[in-house]
Design a protein that fits this description.
The complex is a heterodimer of chains A (470) and B (414).
Chain A (H helix, E strand, L loop, with lengths): L3 H8 L2 H11 L4 H4 L16 E9 L5 E10 L2 E6 L8 E4 L4 E4 L1 E6 L38 H7 L2 E6 L7 E9 L17 E5 L2 H8 L8 H26 L3 H6 L7 H10 L4 E5 L3 H14 L3 E5 L8 H7 L2 E4 L17 H11 L2 E4 L10 H14 L6 H4 L5 H6 L17 E4 L10 E6 L2 E5 L24
Parallel strand pairs in A: 1-4, 1-5, 6-7, 9-10, 10-11, 11-12, 12-13
Antiparallel strand pairs in A: 1-2, 2-3, 5-14, 7-8, 8-9, 14-15, 15-16
Helix pairs in contact in A: 1-2, 6-8, 6-9, 10-11, 11-12
Chain B lengths: L1 H20 L3 E10 L6 E10 L2 E6 L7 E5 L4 E4 L1 E6 L36 H7 L2 E6 L8 E9 L10 E9 L7 H20 L1 H5 L11 H11 L5 E5 L2 H14 L3 E5 L7 H6 L4 E3 L18 H8 L3 E3 L10 H10 L4 H8 L1 H6 L17 E4 L10 E6 L2 E2 L5 H12 L4
Parallel strand pairs in B: 1-4, 1-5, 6-7, 9-10, 10-11, 11-12, 12-13
Antiparallel strand pairs in B: 1-2, 2-3, 5-14, 7-8, 8-9, 14-15, 15-16
Helix pairs in contact in B: 3-5, 9-10
């Protein structure tokens, strides 16, 4: 089914997997799509800036006191103690903390924007349980006022997913927190596509209430498997065609395009990353077996309330879990919340776990640092030895890994994008606020200067014609 | 695992012994006491509790035979009060048979007292987060009236009587399928009906006809209590102009009102202060989620307090009512003073619902509902080490902690 090189790829890390296998493709998806829908975001060169004397949480697992971060031309140039540059504009961060830009791996901003109007409710194509052909980016409203609220909370990158009504809900998209009229102008350059899948109560409730399949969890699983069988057979047809000589190709017909199966084939080829809404331990284990049956990888389980019950399994298979700090009880699959979930997932198999704190909420995303603080303190209280330098990764490097963009963001390292937050103090304190937020080296939010803040179109003249919202 | 088991057993033993101690004395020693009174915060202070009541607050209190809680380097606050929750009425939001928070049959007079489940799984979670009392209110039902709220403690004792019954009525006003003007008329009509019901009582008793419309006797009796000034009306509304209309309505009918939600309250802060109308706020809810709340903002509570408005801080998530503490911390980050934030979680709520003689502050004569925190109670990283309700040390065990211990053990992380 898959060649040995591709098999090798599956055994190495996610990122390499992604980029190597992309190169192996005969025709890349962007070529097939005629370069359409690609990111058009291209920041202007940013001024050379040095942020000095701050407490730096690097996102690589270090806390460095009295350290500097040097940014030039949209990129981080250097991080550490004793860095100086005479030409750079200086920002004194004495008494302040510096972190990578915060990444929220589970957002519905833009597809379930504020205000919550029926005409803006574009997150669930709940007309059929398997809709891999829909793309969240085609629903995104680029003037959602929630983006700027998130920016004030330090969010520089967020991942927008379709909702969870469907077994396979469609493609997700990773966006930079940039104001742009077009969604292409917000798209994270080069970020891989993702595919939203959903376990459990939501799909079976939505379709079960209509007396159609699925109405049970076993119906859910049958639905996923049927979809993957079709995808596998489509992939076989594509590969069979590709393996033909040029002459034979000219004589035969190329398999016709199939919008649904193209996305699923992208997953089978390792190009599209599975982001799977899944609460229960036993359902996560089943989803991993489905991935085994069809030879693809689950990247992240989202809302993984019971991840702690299968934390070893997740760590062993290199699957991340994206979790809330304390949400629970809104349905039965969310009943077994433990406050230590994030910390337990993190510590599984001697710290091999990949734990992510996510929001799924336009309120929570503004305070993702506080959600991480709650999860950290719960873990520490239970005797788990986790420090802030590691815990910051739950909202920076780990979501970057799970989105396939860790080579570009998620930590303060030379060569990465200049996405940096200066906090008024320890970001694990409730009193600390994001004071300055840089995206690609540009100051996008400064709580000391109203000018450095571009409001969304929605915010203009909405409370009074002369004034702006916030 | 042994470690956690022993903590669990110790906690249980302490719980049992402290229950027995209720007849004698408890002395909390050497605490930083956030009193939620004019006295503010007292350092290195002792609190003596006798038979469930605070009898002394001061330094170096001498006593005999008291159970000692050493609170050196700890901070104590009054027990937190949830000013608006469905605690004890809901187990799982998505499962209607586990929900008792609303009705399609009754309106104004719907009392939730008989629905309250003192053994709800949610209650231990919330008291371990420092909530010792809750104003338990019905959710919106068929019309604009939700019904009546009652007060319960979170001690989990298997008793069915509330601390205070039917202390406030709740309505919802704002954007809905029908015009808000029609909702206002319905409200006015129901008040007129309640008045006519009062004046027609003797004729009704003689067998005269009375058209109750969509209401029952108990609904009209409840509205009469509002009109007599016995209870306040909690109005869930957000739009500034709606708040103003409701203030006019309240003046016209001489009723006491409290706003809930009130995302645009900052726009009429001075009026709210002049009219002495308390406001129940979730400080973190700054989303312009509808055209009723376009002006939502994080410093709503700070602006209101500066203007002189009494604020009460809530969490909209009943399962985590204790997260009002996080809301209060965020309000402080956006301009509210720490002292006021604690008051907004305690005494302001007690005063608003007429409970100020019993709970809401640490002062002599009050019930000993007290939380011992390991650190700053407004920090999310702090936690309650000890919770007293009526002078009884309450178990802080939860189903969640039991699950945690089971799986820490299974994962070999203990």
């Amino acid at each position: 089914m898959r060649n040995p090189i591709q098999h090798f790829c599956y055994s190495i890390c996610l990122l390499n997997l992604l980029f190597i296998s992309m190169n192996l493709q005969a025709i890349s998806e962007s070529e097939m799509l005629n370069q359409a829908y690609q990111s058009t975001y291209s920041p202007d060169p940013s001024p050379k800036t040095i942020i000095k004397n701050g407490t730096v949480l690097t996102g690589t697992g270090l806390l460095i006191e009295r350290a500097s971060v040097l940014i030039e031309n949209n990129k981080i140039i250097a991080v550490g103690v004793g860095i100086d540059d005479d030409e750079a504009q200086v920002i004194d961060a004495e008494g302040k903390w510096i972190t990578p830009g915060i990444i929220d791996i589970h957002s519905h901003m833009g597809v379930y924007p504020a205000p919550g109007l029926r005409s803006l409710s574009d997150g669930n194509e709940a007309t059929s349980p398997v809709t891999p052909h829909v793309w969240a980016e085609h629903s995104v409203w680029t003037h959602d006022p929630q983006y700027t609220l998130a920016l004030k909370g330090g969010i520089t990158t967020f991942h927008v997913l379709p909702g969870s009504a469907n077994l396979i809900g469609g493609r997700g998209v990773t966006l930079k927190n940039i104001r742009s009229v077009t969604v292409q102008g917000m798209k994270f350059p080069g970020a891989p596509y993702t595919l939203k899948m959903a376990c459990g109560e939501n799909p079976k409730r939505v379709y079960g209430n209509r007396d159609s399949e699925p109405s049970t969890k076993m119906g859910n699983v049958a639905g996923y498997r049927k979809a993957w069988i079709e995808a596998q057979s489509y992939l076989n047809r594509l590969e069979e065609y590709e393996s033909k000589s040029e002459e034979a190709k000219e004589l035969g017909y190329a398999p016709s395009r199939d919008l649904e199966l193209e996305t699923l084939v992208g997953v089978l080829k390792g190009e599209i990353l599975i982001q799977n809404h899944c609460y229960r331990g036993e359902e996560m284990a089943i989803m991993l077996d489905i991935a085994k049956e069809f030879d693809y990888k689950v990247t992240t389980f989202h809302h993984a309330i019971e991840a702690y019950k299968v934390a070893d399994l997740l760590a062993e298979q290199g699957v991340c879990a994206a979790m809330w700090a304390d949400w629970w009880g809104f349905k039965h699959e969310a009943f077994d919340m433990v406050w230590e979930n994030v910390a337990m997932v993190d510590q599984a198999l001697n710290g091999k776990g990949c734990a992510i704190v996510h929001s799924d909420s336009a309120v929570g995303t503004q305070h993702l640092n506080q959600e991480a603080a709650k999860a950290l303190s719960a873990g520490n209280r239970s005797g788990l030895d986790i420090n802030k330098a590691r815990a910051i990764q739950w909202i920076t490097l780990n979501p970057a890994k799970a989105l396939g963009i860790a080579d570009q963001v998620g930590s303060l390292e030379a060569g990465k994008m200049g996405d940096v937050v200066i906090w008024s103090g320890d970001p694990f304190s409730i009193y600390s606020k994001a004071e300055k937020v840089f995206i690609d080296g540009h100051l996008k939010y400064d709580n000391g200067s109203i000018d450095a803040f571009t409001r969304t179109d929605f915010d203009l003249g909405i409370i009074t014609p002369e004034g702006d919202r916030l | 695992m042994k470690y956690f088991n022993s903590i669990f057993i110790l906690t249980c033993l302490f719980f049992i012994s402290a229950q027995a101690e209720n007849d004698s004395r408890i002395l909390i020693q050497n605490a930083t006491v956030i009193t939620a009174t004019e006295q503010g915060t007292l350092l290195k202070t002792d609190v003596l509790i006798e038979q469930g009541i605070i009898t002394k607050v001061g330094q170096n209190i001498e006593t005999t035979n008291a159970f000692i809680i050493d609170a050196s380097n700890k901070i104590i606050t009054p027990g937190l009060i949830a000013p608006h929750s469905t605690l004890g009425l809901i187990e799982l939001d998505s499962e209607s048979e586990t929900r008792d928070d609303s009705t399609d049959h009754y309106s104004a007079g719907f009392s939730i007292v008989d629905a309250f489940n003192p053994s709800s799984v949610l209650i231990p979670y919330n008291r371990s987060g420092g909530i010792t009392s809750a104003i338990v209110a019905p959710s919106s039902g068929a019309g604009i009236y939700s019904g009546m709220a009652s007060v319960f403690k979170t001690d989990g004792l298997l008793k069915i009587e509330p601390v205070a019954k039917d202390v406030a009525m709740i309505i919802e006003f704002g954007g809905s399928k029908d015009s808000r003007a029609a909702n206002m008329l319905m409200l006015k009509d129901s008040f007129d009906l309640a008045r006519r019901f009062t004046t027609s009582k003797s004729s009704i008793l003689r067998g005269g006809y009375f058209d109750f419309g969509d209401y029952t006797v108990r609904d009209l009796v409840a509205i009469q209590r509002l009109l007599k000034g016995e209870i306040p009306l909690i109005i869930r509304a957000n739009r500034a102009s709606d708040l103003l209309k409701m203030i006019n309505f309240a003046k016209e009918h001489r009723i006491n009102i409290i706003f809930l939600g009130a995302k645009e309250a900052w726009r009429i802060a001075d009026t709210l202060a002049t009219e002495s109308i308390p406001v129940i706020i979730d400080p973190m809810d700054n989303i312009p989620s509808s055209f009723d709340s376009i002006g939502a903002r994080l410093d709503n509570s700070a602006i209101l307090h500066r203007a002189g408005v009494k604020i009460l801080i809530t969490s909209q998530n009943t399962h985590n009512s204790y997260l009002s503490r996080q809301g209060a911390g965020n309000a402080v980050a956006h301009g509210l003073s720490k002292d006021e934030a604690i008051k907004a979680l305690t005494i302001n709520i007690a005063e608003t619902f007429g409970l100020q003689d019993e709970i809401g502050s640490i002062e002599v004569g009050k019930h000993a509902d007290i939380v011992v925190w390991d650190n700053d109670p407004l920090e999310v990283s702090s936690f309650a080490e000890e919770v007293l309700i009526d002078g009884n040390s309450i178990s802080l065990m939860t189903r969640s902690k039991r699950l945690r211990d089971r799986y820490l053990n299974k994962l070999g992380l203990n």
